[in-house]
């Protein structure tokens, strides 16, 4: 363990007589990996209301020589070092995302909005696809979730001294920046192991986003399946298809836009996983293939076709690209129509052969 006298008064302790009864030792960090600070109580209490309650309030330890030790195991040691430096007016420099994120936690716990804003600014500046999930995890607890409430707060900025609101506004700014990065590189982010460490609320929030730029909806389904398997293991449960299904609500499972999959993607992915029931799988396959009779049967058997979303997720880049394409001339349009007729005819022949193959494969998956 490191003995780190942060405050200047402690540097002179060996040169002048100091009343140790006025001091306290703060031991910060996890057991076995802590830093210690020998601090004069009143000097720190004058700078922070939170420390005033901790060091001089009714619950403060009585004076003694040697000074009493207060253990703060819930604070990361480097984050606490930044907190003390900021409170004492020293400069704070971040060198890693992990320390900045831990410092934001400390600033939130000790109601220090200035330090929170510094940490937020550093993380926004250094956001990337590789660190965004570590920042996003737990951030919703600090941010303002309702857009209307956020609009009211921003239209009428918090009064000076309203520390909690100032921190919430800063964290909401960081949360929106994280969601922007996740949306833009969703395929990469959803494949990361860090996705499995998110809370169920965080997973649901991402899965429902219209702005996710997914290459394929199977990427989201695979991410949800991995998360549910990890959740089973966290509770000591075998990750069977039924247990994985129960780990997430139907609302989250149906945030996957199965109707945007090809028949092959659905059969070899969600259907083969066993997470969806055979009835659900049959109903979804029927919708993908456009079989109306199967749709009616599914509705009568209380499957959930009404939850199936066929609307593509928002892809602004593809819209912009389409506007830049010039309209074809008349001759080109006529040629295109002829080609489409030929293609439709050939597709119809291939579809007849494919339907029979799909039925056999679907039945094999259901009864395997």
Automatic annotation (TrEMBL):
Biological process, per Gene Ontology: neurogenesis
InterPro entries: BACK, BTB/POZ_dom, SKP1/BTB/POZ_sf
BTB domain span: 22-96
Domain of life per record: Eukaryota
PROSITE patterns in alphabetical order: BTB
GO cellular component term of the entry, any: cytosol
SUPFAM superfamilies, alphabetized: POZ domain (SSF54695)
Protein name: BTB domain-containing protein
Species per Swiss-Prot/TrEMBL record: Microctonus aethiopoides
């Amino acid at each position: 363990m490191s003995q780190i006298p942060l405050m200047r008064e402690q540097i002179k302790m060996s040169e002048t007589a100091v009343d140790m009864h006025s001091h306290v030792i703060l031991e910060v960090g996890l057991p076995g990996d802590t830093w210690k600070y020998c601090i004069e109580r009143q000097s720190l209490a004058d700078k922070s209301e939170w420390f005033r309650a901790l060091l001089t309030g009714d619950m403060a330890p009585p004076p003694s020589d040697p000074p009493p030790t207060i253990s703060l195991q819930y604070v990361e040691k480097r984050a606490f070092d930044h907190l003390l430096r900021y409170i004492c007016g020293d400069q704070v420099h971040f060198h890693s995302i992990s320390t900045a994120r831990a410092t934001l936690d400390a600033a939130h716990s000790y109601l220090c909005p200035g330090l929170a804003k510094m940490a937020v600014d550093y993380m926004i500046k250094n956001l990337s696809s590789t660190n965004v999930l570590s920042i996003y995890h737990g951030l919703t607890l600090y941010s303002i979730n309702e857009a209307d409430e956020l609009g009211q707060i921003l239209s009428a900025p918090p009064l000076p001294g309203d520390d909690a609101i100032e921190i919430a506004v800063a964290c909401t700014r960081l949360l929106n920046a994280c969601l922007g990065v996740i949306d833009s590189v969703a395929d990469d982010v959803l494949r990361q192991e860090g996705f499995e460490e998110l809370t169920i609320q965080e997973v649901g929030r991402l899965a429902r986003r219209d702005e996710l730029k997914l290459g394929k909806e199977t990427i989201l389904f695979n991410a949800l399946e991995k998360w549910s398997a990890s959740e089973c293991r966290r509770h000591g449960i075998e990750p069977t298809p039924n247990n994985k299904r129960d780990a997430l609500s139907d609302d989250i499972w149906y945030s996957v836009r199965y109707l945007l999959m090809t028949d092959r993607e659905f059969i070899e992915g969600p259907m083969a996983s066993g997470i969806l029931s055979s009835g659900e799988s049959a109903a979804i396959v029927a919708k993908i293939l456009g079989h109306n009779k199967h749709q009616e049967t599914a509705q009568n058997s209380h499957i959930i076709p009404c939850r199936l979303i066929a609307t593509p997720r928002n892809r602004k880049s593809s819209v912009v690209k389409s506007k830049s394409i010039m309209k074809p001339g008349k001759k080109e349009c006529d040629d295109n129509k002829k080609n489409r007729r030929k293609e439709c005819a050939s597709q119809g022949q291939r579809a007849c052969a494919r339907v029979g193959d799909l039925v056999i494969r679907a039945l094999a998956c259901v009864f395997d």
